[in-house]
Design a protein that fits this description.
The protein has 12 helices and 8 strands. It is an alpha/beta fold. The protein has an 8-stranded mixed sheet with strand order 1-2-4-3-5-6-7-8, sandwiched between helices. Helix 3 runs parallel beside helix 9. It is globular and about 50 Å long.
């Protein structure tokens, strides 16, 4: 089994919803859990966690709008709209409630989903990325490592066309505690996916939507904090305890976790600790569904 192999009983399908088509992997039995990926990766990042959780969960792993093998629409990259993508695919899969585990951009989509559909989320794990407009967002934006949040303009796609690997390597290297742990096969795999027509444009649009996301998130927050149990995980050499500080602005029941010896790329740098932490939280906070 290689790093991107899901359990053999998993199925893949394209689900038309909310004006786009979402590529989804699903399998296992038991209470549902949704795994949402972030930028510079796809749902493939979750394969090792899916192997573990599928023992006693129905695991649903989409590629976000415009990323991976999902379709590449012209718009809709604000996270409020993408939350509608998640709602639509769960409706199609006939899943009423689920646990939610997210990373990077997936955190932002997951928060927009949980804020709009709190009754559909039983537990929520967010890993190593901030939420636009929530808590110390303006301070976070000043970090020079996050230059890409504001990288835009008419030439950005021409600058990286045919050079996707060079662009993505910078993320994998700069946000790793140990860059070598983001393996060469993984870099090759994701570079090919991001070189697909429309993929880099879609990635840039995920970031370009942050100003609108901040407005939407402040409106969500004005209606109250998330009620479900939340686990905020940071990589030891990345967001660390800041993840929990962020989420305490947005949720009323927050636990914190640190993935040791890891930067941002938790499933590449320390998958064993990450999977153990997520499973322990889900098992300890079981509720009737």
């Amino acid at each position: 089994m290689n790093a991107f192999d899901f359990p053999p009983e998993f199925h893949t399908r394209d689900i038309a919803t909310n004006g786009t088509s979402i590529y989804v992997r699903s399998g296992g039995t038991g209470p549902a859990v949704i795994l949402l990926h972030g930028y510079a990766e796809t749902g493939d990042m979750w394969a090792p966690m899916a192997v573990d959780l599928a023992r006693d969960h129905t695991v649903v792993v989409p590629d976000l709008r415009g990323m991976g093998l999902s379709s590449k629409p012209a718009g809709g990259f604000d996270k409020k709209t993408q939350a509608g993508d998640v709602a639509g695919l769960l409706d199609e899969l006939k899943i009423d409630r689920a646990d939610l585990v997210t990373h990077d951009i997936g955190n932002m989509v997951g928060y927009a989903f949980a804020a709009q559909y709190p009754d559909r989320i039983t537990r929520f794990v967010l890993i190593d990325a901030p939420l636009p407009g929530i808590g110390p967002w303006e301070e976070i934006l000043k970090n020079p490592l996050l230059w890409h949040f504001r990288f835009g303009g008419p030439d950005m796609e021409r600058l990286v066309a045919g050079r996707e690997r060079i662009y993505l390597d910078r993320f994998w290297n700069e946000f790793s505690a140990t860059p070598a742990r983001f393996s060469e096969p993984a870099r090759t795999h994701y570079s090919k996916l991001y070189a697909m027509p429309g993929a880099m444009h879609s990635g840039f649009m995920q970031f370009a939507a942050f100003d609108q996301d901040a407005i939407d998130n402040q409106q969500f927050l004005a209606k109250g904090k998330l009620p479900m149990p939340v686990l905020a995980i940071g990589g030891e050499k990345s967001f660390g305890t800041t993840m929990a500080k962020i989420m305490r602005f947005a949720a009323s029941n927050v636990s914190e976790g640190i993935v040791p010896d890891s930067g941002h790329w938790i499933m590449e740098e320390n998958p064993t600790a990450t999977i153990s932490m997520v499973r322990a939280f889900l098992d300890a906070n079981k509720v009737d569904v």
